[in-house]
Amino acid sequence: MRVLFVEKQLDYEPQGTMQLSSVLKEAGHDVALTIAAQEDALEFAYEYQPDVLAYSVMTGSHHYYFDLNRQIKERLNGKNVFSMFGGPHPTFFPEMIAEPGVDGLCIGEGEGPIVDLVNALGNGGVKPDIPNWWLNIDGEVIKNPVRQLLRSLGDLPRPDRHLIYDKHVYMREAPVKHFMGSRGCPYQCTYCFNHAYYQIYKGEKRGSQRPVDTIIDEVNWVRANWPLENVVFIDDLFIIFDDWLEEFAEKWPKEVGLPFFCNVRADLLVKGPHKVDLLKKAGCGTVSMGIEAANDRIRVKLLKRRMTREDMIQAGNMVRDAGIHITSTNILGLPTSTLEDDLDTMRLNAAARISYAHAFIFQPYPGTELGQYAQDHDFMVGTFDDIPTIAWDRSILVRQNPEETRQIEHLQRWFAIGVELPWMEPLIRKLIKAPHNKFVDSIYWLLNKSFKGYAISSRVHPTKFNIRNLWNAATHFFRMDA
Q: What distances in angstroms separate CA 51 from CA 1, 56, 73, 215, 272, one per listed residue?
């Protein structure tokens, strides 16, 4: 069978797509990728003549992919092609199976399910009883339960990076590349999909780690074939298991020796200072932790992040004192929060000595506890279908003072600069009162992008200076929607 993955654009290597491609190829299928932002996806599909169209969909991008799927099917001139959708939006909003052109959607993990379905299609037709799949067969929707989560992640074939690098020049040549060392997270943050994910997989252990040797093998294979100077682990939480982290800290410097980035959690570092020592021993260059909100009520009760301001300040100081940079994630415009709360969060980031502070405007994603809270308490304008593709452009929450909404949206652009230069807060308070118009929005966007690019290239993921790489990175960075 010929399977075509369709992407709008790529920010960094899509780990799920690469892994799905590898298991499909292992099963004997042909796999290709088209990226609509850099080529005519319709013409590519016409030339490739796929049997299956595959989409990974986040909330906010779903309408784009519904429309693109329809256009591709029309361009294929009536060819019998099966359109399958996976990713966060189908997993938490499976009712999208009723959307015209959606033949099947995968809930949860996809490696086993996608091979089973494509095998069935290649053997004469879709089977109705494949776990994880909701299927639209001749107008009848069939809803199958999920199978157990994969535990032996080391048994999976190496992710198919050729699929991405043969197509995407920037990612192929970039000295910074992305990897995953684990899946899952044991925490209950209300804005995150993890707690909702484990409602689907009730009773399952939360979190699985890839073997250290498997990760090292993949990284060294990538370095042998493509440029690689800095490794980014995009795991939800890299430091859960001490025994794994100890093994990693022992082997990584000897067998790889590259600086790396990973996600941590403030309270885990404060309770276990040895984790910082292990990260330093391993050669970690940068970590990221969620601060999200400075207000204790919002952070503890609304977000269910049971840690203190002092934890975050202490964790930031521990990391910086170890010679490791630290970035943070923050959510602005939360339900029941105010502009002053968000400015307080900016000040907390500065106190924690954050090297670069990411700020996102809250979006009430379906399937999350906080998304449901926003809907139930009439904080949302419209429905989940109105959520934008990216999480730092506009807020869809209802506020008593529309002017405050505009100021929060502008603050997102200035947030990282305010953390870097706390003395600018009085000026930032004035600048965020500006109206929304093309000139103001463009200038604020440019300043935000420029500072972010500087901070990431010089601190977060530093690499050797190369004019070509710098140009490629800048071009890629400024073309992205986000």
A: 6, 17, 11, 33, 51
In angstroms, the CA 384 to CA 341 distance is 25
Is the four-CA dihedral 288, 58, 28, 123 of positive or negative sign? positive
- Distances in Å between the Cα of 462 and the Cα atoms of 258, 366, 395 are 11, 36, 32
CB 427 within 8 A of CB 396: no
Q: State the pLDDT confidence band at 116, using cuts at 50, 70 and 90.
A: very high
Domain boundaries, the chain: 2-143, 174-192+216-479
Residue with tokens 């400075």: 294
- Residue 93 vs residue 427, higher pLDDT: 427
Q: How far is CA 11 from CA 8, 37, 170, in A?
A: 10, 11, 10
pLDDT at 477: 52
* Pairing verdict, β 208-209 and 140-143: unpaired
Predicted confidence band of residue 481 (pLDDT cuts 50, 70, 90) = low
Query: Under a CB-based contact definition with an 8 Å cutoff, are residues 264 and 236 in contact?
Result: no
Planar angle of CA 211, 214, 220, nearest 5 degrees: 140
Given CA atoms 438, 439, 440, 446 in this order, what sign does their dihedral have? positive
Strand residues in 345-465 grouped as ranges (E): 356-361
What is the band of 468 on the pLDDT scale with cuts at 50, 70, 90?
A: low
Q: How is residue 444 written in tokens?
A: 């604020």
CA nearest 334: which of 358, 359, 361, 308? Answer: 361
Q: What is the CATH number of domain 2-143?
A: 3.40.50.280
Strand-strand pairing, 52-56 and 2-7:
parallel
Each residue's pLDDT tens digit, 399-444: 778 899 999 999 999 999 999 999 999 999 999 999 999 999 999 9
Would you say domain 174-192+216-479 falls under CATH 3.80.30.20?
Answer: yes
Partners of 30 in beta bridges:
2
Q: What is the mean pLDDT of the chain?
A: 91
pLDDT, greater one: 463 or 97: 97
Kindly provide the b/e burial profile for residues 243-261, where b requires at least 16 CB atoms within 10 angstroms of the residue's own CB. ebbbebbeebeeebebbbb
Q: Residue 463 CA to chain centroid, in angstroms?
A: 22
Contacts of 424 (CB under 8 A, 6+ apart): 417, 418
Per-residue pLDDT averaged across 137-162, rounded?
93
Model pTM score: 0.91
List CB contacts of 335: < 8 A, sequence separation 6 or more: 302, 362, 364, 370, 373, 374, 377, 379, 397
The total of other beta-carbon atoms located within 10 Å of residue 297's CB is 12
